[in-house]
Design goal:
359 residues; alpha/beta; Rossmann fold; globular; disordered C terminus
């Protein structure tokens, strides 16, 4: 199996003229320039990425990638790995947060099972069987994935992007589930950005102070092993060394959506780490990304800074699943409606005098 084309070929860049047209429209709507804040910026960004004067978000796909982690052997999670398989059933039955949100938004929801330690009930609705292995390997001792496994996970992510394209989706949201994945994501982040794990490591599923310290120490040991390798901070090498199946699939989906000109709304910490991997691999992916919210995980701010990203929301969320991104969708839809529906000063017969709406 080879890497998907989207992983090896830079995506096309969106056309500047659509951003310029959208910005001009914002400047003549019946409001002081900038008075709608980030709603103006995101409307311009969506118009530019969709290549239209009237951006819309009627068709949205949410793909939740699921995988277990061998690093759990080191006691880095407050929850047992059986939860990962149990949550797949919960997604399928509509009981998970992202399931409720997807239904509310009218979004397509799919769950991609990349491998769980515990058995998953067969033929669950909305669940795609894409198992690579029961879990990744314990990356303290050995690379988390083989090259073949990384390639398989990237291709499963790219396939999700293709499904979104086939459905004519106007926005893609990637989510994740996997006990141990904040440890994996933090190791990737620290290796790529050369950060101290003691600074970036957070509670994940709810570790106490001692648990967080142990988790950081495990990551330090793993990075010390990797630092002896010849690949340095190469994104692919770091992904192979510390990543999870679901993190690799997210990176593949992000790259795949950019290659197919589909904007991606990035969720919280773990999806942002996958975005950092994808952007390090293909910097031209970055314009296709919007950022939904600032996670309560302590490492997220460093990732956002590395991606030069300013998210829409800061609600103290750290659930994952793509839930924070889903929560932001109504704001994006409102931004589009304001952009498309507001009258211009000329249309409304309102004097276009700077500050005239400020009283």
């Amino acid at each position: 199996m080879s890497f998907p084309n989207s992983w090896t070929t830079p995506p096309r860049q969106p056309e500047a003229r659509f951003f310029e047209q959208a910005a001009r429209r914002q400047s003549v709507l019946t409001k002081p320039t900038g008075s709608l804040g980030k709603l103006e910026n995101v409307a311009v960004q969506l118009a530019g990425l969709q290549g239209t004067d009237t951006p819309t978000l009627d068709r949205i796909q949410i793909s939740v990638f699921v995988g277990d982690h061998g690093i759990c052997e080191e006691g880095i999670s407050a929850y047992p790995q059986a939860v990962t398989a149990q949550m797949i059933a919960n997604f399928a039955s509509g009981g998970a947060a992202v399931s409720v949100l997807a239904k509310s938004l009218g979004a397509e929801l799919e769950v991609v099972n990349l491998g769980t330690v515990s058995d998953v009930e067969p033929d669950l609705p909305g669940v795609i069987d894409a198992r690579i292995a029961p879990c990744t390997r314990n990356f303290v001792a050995i690379d988390a994935m083989t090259t073949e496994q990384v390639c398989a996970a990237l291709n499963h992510g790219d396939a999700a992007a293709q499904r979104a394209s086939d459905k004519g989706c106007q926005l893609f949201i990637g989510g994740e589930m996997g006990i141990g994945n904040t440890t994996s994501a933090t190791a990737v982040a620290c290796a790529l950005m050369e950060k101290n794990p003691m600074k970036l490591t957070g509670p994940g599923t709810g570790l106490d102070i001692a648990g967080v310290r142990h988790k950081a120490e495990v990551i330090i040991l793993a990075i010390q092993r990797h630092d002896n390798d010849d690949d340095g901070q190469d994104a692919m090498a770091v992904l192979k060394a510390f990543g999870g199946f679901e993190i690799a699939a997210l990176a593949g989906a992000i790259a795949g959506c950019a290659a197919r000109s589909i904007p991606v709304l990035i969720d919280g910490y773990i999806v942002s780490v996958a975005a950092l991997i994808a952007v390090r691999q293909q910097p031209d992916i970055r314009p296709w990304l919007l950022f939904a919210h600032r996670s309560a995980e302590p490492g997220h701010q460093a990732i956002l800074a590395a991606l030069n990203a300013e998210p829409l929301l800061d609600l103290g969320m750290r659930l994952g699943e793509g839930s924070g991104a889903a929560v932001a969708v109504p704001l994006l839809r409102i931004a589009c409606e304001l952009h498309n529906g507001m009258a211009s000063f000329t249309d409304a017969g309102v004097s276009n005098k700077e500050g005239s709406h400020d009283g």
